[in-house]
């Protein structure tokens, strides 16, 4: 949603109304003040608003009662709740009633604008319904287009090349295409080209005859033969060795393959869907991937966006995983507070959907039936810390040396996160302020030192 959105602000404190309206107007929004919550719903009924901001505690009508009335009358605009009396229970109730975000006073102007911008962006891309394609769910506009493309190409036999980072759901999309196709009653065969040793990959793909090599005591059917008239999914095709790429190219050109140790070619009727996290054009330039094979595979390319590029999908995916584990493992569902959801939506998710799914499973197993607040999240999610940095140098030498190096680096990192505020740093570390100060002093990492 572009700036210029019309925002209704509801509270019975004039100072708060004026300050909030001034902050929003300075950022290009159009704030409208309502100092009586009983008049808010009629205003919504008579005028167009893109967002409602309300406080929780008001004399004439509580914030939750206002939200219930607004939702009960069919208004679907996003709602942001602000309160100076915030509790975890209130946060959960706000989310349950349909609030898009929940903030505790005092709210810094920058934080307010950031939250408003995110909520309006979500509303712009959210069309009120969860889209589903086989085992995939989404509310994101870009994923909607991908789902439509997948459904169209499913009716053809064209080859598909799925591109995207690890964990974005490439195999799920390949399976969805197969399931929506006329081949759905035929096998869906997966080959992870990165997980099979180079010297065994040819045999896995094409099979082998008895005596073709040492330990080949019997004939073995390969994945192409097993796929029959179904679909074969070549995951991480960018890891395939050059010598085998030439043989795969032959299969794609002639629709025939020859098992290892055989002189008789066999016909392949399987559809080929390939996927990779690599930049194949870059691999071609480096001489690691055949250009002719690339063009044979790249008939219909589909790029799956990283999870950090579609944060509006995170609540949808979390609810999907909660329902999944509740059904399959009989685990009591968890509840996510608004503050926790905000952290989950702003985390960069280097492992994408797979990382999110693993986190939801962990939270459900360890906190079944509980409310998840920010402290239950891993440190990296709470503070958006990277996973991929190489800290191997911290673990060199004897234990005493490694511990000194780790604690020193940890103190320095936490103080940096807290922008030099020692009280905040101690809170992040979940340590007594005096204890944290002494540790930082011992390692000579105090701010300004």
Describe this structure in words.
With 449 residues, this protein is an alpha/beta fold. The chain has 4 domains: 6-125, Rossmann fold (3-Layer(aba) Sandwich), CATH 3.40.50.2300; 132-303, P-loop containing nucleotide triphosphate hydrolases (Rossmann fold); 309-378, Orthogonal Bundle (Helicase, Ruva Protein, domain 3), CATH 1.10.8; 392-442. The protein is 45% helix and 14% strand. It contains 19 helices and 16 strands. The strands form 5 sheets. A 5-stranded parallel β-sheet has the order 2-1-3-4-5, sandwiched between helices. Strands 9-10-13-8-14 form a 5-stranded parallel β-sheet. Helix 6 crosses helix 7, helix 10 packs across helix 12 (291-297) and helix 18 crosses helix 19 (433-442). The longest helix is centred in the last third of the chain and has 19 residues, at 399-417. The radius of gyration is 28 Å and the shape is globular. 32% of the residues are buried.
What keywords describe this structure?
single chain, 449 residues, alpha/beta, Rossmann fold, Helicase, Ruva Protein, domain 3, 4 domains, 5-stranded parallel β-sheet
SSE layout and pairings?
Layout: E1 6-10, H1 14-26, E2 30-34, H2 40-46, E3 51-55, H3 63-72, E4 79-83, H4 88-97, E5 101-104, H5 109-125, E6 131-133, E7 136-138, H6 141-154, E8 160-163, H7 170-179, E9 188-192, H8 198-206, H9 223-227, E10 231-235, H10 242-254, E11 256-257, E12 266-267, E13 271-276, H11 280-285, H12 291-297, E14 300-303, H13 313-328, E15 335-336, H14 338-346, H15 352-366, E16 371-372, H16 379-382, H17 399-417, H18 422-429, H19 433-442
Parallel strand pairs: 1-2, 1-3, 3-4, 4-5, 8-13, 8-14, 9-10, 10-13, 15-16
Antiparallel strand pairs: 6-7, 11-12
Helix pairs in contact: 6-7, 10-12, 13-15, 17-18, 18-19
């Amino acid at each position: 949603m572009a700036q210029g959105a019309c925002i209704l602000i509801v509270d019975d404190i004039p100072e708060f109304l004026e300050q909030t309206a001034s902050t929003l107007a300075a950022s290009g929004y159009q704030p409208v003040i309502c100092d009586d919550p009983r008049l808010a719903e009629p205003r919504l009924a008579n005028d167009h608003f893109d967002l409602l901001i309300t406080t929780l505690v008001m004399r004439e009508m509580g914030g939750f009662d206002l939200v219930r009335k607004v939702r009960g009358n069919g208004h679907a605009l996003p709602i942001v709740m602000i309160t100076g009396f915030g509790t975890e229970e209130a946060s959960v109730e706000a989310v349950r009633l349909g609030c898009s975000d929940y903030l505790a006073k005092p709210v810094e102007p920058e934080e307010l604008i950031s939250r408003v911008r995110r909520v309006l962006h979500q509303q712009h891309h959210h069309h009120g319904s969860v889209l589903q394609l086989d085992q995939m769910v989404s509310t994101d506009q870009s994923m909607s287009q991908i789902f439509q493309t997948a459904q169209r190409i499913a009716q053809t036999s064209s080859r598909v090349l799925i591109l995207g980072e690890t964990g974005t759901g490439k195999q799920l999309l390949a399976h969805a295409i197969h399931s929506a196709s006329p081949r759905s009653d035929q096998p869906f065969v997966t080959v992870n080209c990165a997980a099979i040793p180079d010297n065994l990959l040819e045999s896995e793909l094409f099979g082998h005859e008895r005596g073709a090599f040492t330990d080949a005591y019997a004939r073995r059917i390969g994945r192409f033969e097993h796929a029959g008239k179904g679909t074969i999914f070549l995951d991480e095709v960018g890891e395939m060795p050059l010598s085998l790429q030439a043989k795969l190219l032959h299969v794609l050109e002639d629709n025939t393959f020859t098992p290892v140790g055989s002189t008789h070619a066999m016909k392949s009727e399987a559809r080929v869907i390939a996927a990779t996290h690599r930049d194949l054009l870059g691999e071609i330039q480096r001489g690691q991937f055949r250009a002719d094979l690339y063009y044979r595979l790249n008939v219909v390319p589909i790029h799956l966006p990283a999870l950090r590029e579609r944060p509006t999908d995170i609540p949808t995916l979390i609810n999907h995983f909660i329902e999944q584990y509740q059904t399959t493992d009989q685990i009591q569902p968890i509840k996510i507070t608004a503050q926790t959801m905000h952290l989950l939506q702003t985390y960069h998710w280097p492992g994408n959907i797979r990382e999110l799914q693993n986190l939801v499973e962990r939270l459900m197993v360890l906190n079944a039936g509980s409310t998840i607040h920010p402290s239950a999240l891993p440190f990296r999610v709470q503070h958006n810390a990277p996973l991929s940095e190489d800290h191997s140098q911290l673990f060199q030498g004897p234990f005493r040396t490694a511990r000194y190096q780790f604690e020193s680096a940890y103190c320095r990192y936490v103080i940096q996160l807290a922008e030099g505020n020692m009280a905040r740093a101690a809170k992040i570390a979940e340590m007594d302020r005096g204890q944290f100060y002494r540790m930082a002093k011992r390692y000579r990492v105090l701010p300004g030192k």
